[in-house]
């Protein structure tokens, strides 16, 4: 029996659309790159460049003195055309540095030669941590927490075990899968560097059993590695959630409201590990990443090597454009991603997927019917990976009883969407919970109204 956690769902993965597409560079660069100053959890960076200034690829363009933040670098050489507000996938509109590229050709995926013969013994933990911070690396699985802060020493919460999240459990997304297959040396080098920098004694690669080619390759490449072990997990959503992953791999339960380091564990993403290797060995800042462009609403699904700040529309055009039946574009996966209102919305360090959905995929026919009253079937309770009672929380929010929602532990919800997916009454349970969290935060003055 494969390792897993209690709860979860099994949506169609739809990864066949792009899983066999190699990571390729863009055919051409867009006319403008809009590099957002907030691509991470923590303090928003301030531009350190001026309008009409010439910048080089990899040059620092945004920084912050705050401890929890991440530097921002230019992905291209060019001219600063403007510094203004641009659309953000989550935050509405944030400050961005708009660059007109002077380069003729877009960057290609990194060469793997420098990673094949590297030795982690050539670097001290302090050197690795410094390079990670200088490169502006963040968690690239979606959260965007600054990796330099995560990896750095913390005497109060010493890290003993590292888990690499190779599950990629959201449907459609295949960029991490392709990184493992194509950038194997770089990926494994990043794991070794992260393990050394964090002081972890052991590393587990948690990967779902729907990736047999990657499992076979990684088994071959790690069989002589004493400190790296493959942990094959059941394919189930949200297997890649931090708390679920730690539970599945180690059998440890992270208490509600706590984080993995509190139980001696550090979790990192596949693409993050690859970025760390490039930062430490090649001294390259995080300016590009692999992005899956997929869904039945795009002509030619692909995995692309993308400069941060590229307009969503440009990536779709690189893949032949939208089909007539496309009705929605999502940045991220179908369960936790965000619908894009403007196709000029730029990609960020955490953008792993541009998902182009048709009416059929969105399930619009199902939602032509109104939400019906909750039938108390208990399905949302059985699939909730956090063991909450989602319907009680949703009803409390709907009734404007935020105190009751807090009593039912609304803050523990990870917003995975499993309850909404499984609900036979078509109730947007996760939507109510998200709304409740926002209202509570505003009431506590933790966020603007």
From TrEMBL:
Cofactor(s) essential for the protein: [4Fe-4S] cluster
Sample GO molecular function, one term: metal ion binding
UniProt remark on cofactor binding: Binds 2 [4Fe-4S] clusters per subunit.
Binding-site positions, [4Fe-4S] cluster 2: 384, 413, 416, 419
Coiled-coil features, chain-numbered ranges: none
UniProt-annotated location(s): Cell membrane
Membrane topology type: Peripheral membrane protein
GO BP term, pick one: electron transport chain
Keywords: 4Fe-4S, Cell membrane, Electron transport, Iron, Iron-sulfur, Membrane, Metal-binding, Repeat, Translocase, Transport
Binding site for [4Fe-4S] cluster 1: 374, 377, 380, 423
Domain of life: Bacteria
Domain 4Fe-4S ferredoxin-type positions: 365-393, 404-432
Protein function: Part of a membrane-bound complex that couples electron transfer with translocation of ions across the membrane.
Assembly and binders: The complex is composed of six subunits: RnfA, RnfB, RnfC, RnfD, RnfE and RnfG.
The protein's name: Ion-translocating oxidoreductase complex subunit C
